[in-house]
Design goal:
Length: 315
């Protein structure tokens, strides 16, 4: 089959280069590593599960941020003959791994929290408070670095979810420390640890869901395939659409391909230009591949244009 095919690429949307996102990950990694050491020592010294749980979470964060930094570098590499789309999905793989790591650490924290509720441990509340306050300040600083750089990038969003969970855990640890200091009720520490586990599971789910959607080449969130189909079919010079596919190359980089049946005598280049602009400006699809066909090129099972046919019909 011979037909006219056009490609329109928007390379400026959603790519992760070595600039601001990489710098954000590097800065956050340095802060989180220092906090991990402080909270591990503080948790051992005070006997606080909440601090030890957060230190364990920070250990996962260090690995996750390091992986994210590596993924950022890999994703910035140019396309090759073997990897024609480049390495952008390294970010998605890192985000999925981060989400699984969050669930694993949540399971470990939950198990220890239940054990401590059954057999409470003595806790040095004043020391616990001091270390938790330091942890909260550090997590907020790391969060500020990541918020400035993350945008639509799923990899940085995964890293930010880790750090925000740490900040919430530190806040809970401060509250538990105050309760223990005032009332002496040590199970508050284990309850906070259990709350951290629940928070990690809840925070990881949206990241895993979106990462799986990208890897399975699902339609990007906020874009309805039927609406795109109708918009293409309604464009001047177009009388049918079939084999329409919409997916994400990586987070924030939408792609679309379709076979477009045009009216006899239509200016195909004008149709392609009009559709490329439509898909980019209205739907945010920056990577567009369209094959323009006339009735003579259609396979027998594809619908054919007819005078008075409804351009919105399924193609």
């Amino acid at each position: 089959m011979t037909a006219t095919t056009a490609h329109a690429h928007g390379h400026g949307h959603g790519t992760l280069g070595p600039g601001r996102p990489g710098a954000a990950l590097s800065g956050a990694l340095a802060v989180i590593f220092a906090l991990m050491v402080i909270e591990a020592v503080g948790g051992w010294w005070t006997g606080s599960l909440a601090l030890l749980a957060d230190a364990g979470h920070l250990l996962v964060d260090v690995g996750s941020l390091g992986m994210g930094l590596l993924a950022a570098w890999i994703a910035s590499r140019p396309a090759t003959a073997e990897m024609s789309y480049g390495y952008r999905r390294a970010e998605i793989l890192a985000a999925a791994t981060n989400g699984v790591a969050l669930w694993a650490i949540a399971l470990a924290i939950g198990y220890e929290a239940v054990a401590r509720l059954r057999a409470p441990h003595p806790i040095a509340a004043s020391g616990m408070l001091g270390v938790a306050a330091l942890g909260l300040g550090g997590n907020l600083a790391a969060s500020a670095l990541l918020v400035r750089g993350h945008g639509e990038n799923l990899n940085l969003r995964a890293a930010l979810a880790h750090v925000l969970a740490d900040a919430a855990a530190a806040s809970g640890t401060i509250a538990a420390g105050l309760v223990i200091l005032v009332t002496g009720w040590t199970p508050a520490d284990a309850i906070v640890g259990l709350g951290v586990a629940v928070l990690l599971v809840a925070g990881a789910w949206p990241l895993l869901r979106e990462a799986v959607r990208v890897l399975m080449e699902g339609t990007p969130p906020g874009i309805a395939l039927l609406e795109v189909h109708r918009a293409i079919a309604a464009a001047p010079g177009v009388c049918g659409v079939h084999d329409l596919h919409i997916w994400s190359l990586t987070s924030g980089v939408g792609a679309v391909s379709a076979h477009v049946l045009v009216d006899e005598g239509a200016d195909t280049q004008e149709v392609l230009t009009r559709l490329g602009t439509l898909l980019r400006d209205r739907f945010g699809l920056s990577h567009v591949t369209l094959q323009v066909e006339t009735s003579e090129f259609l396979e027998p099972w594809h619908p054919r244009c007819a005078p008075g046919a409804d351009p919105h019909g399924a193609g």
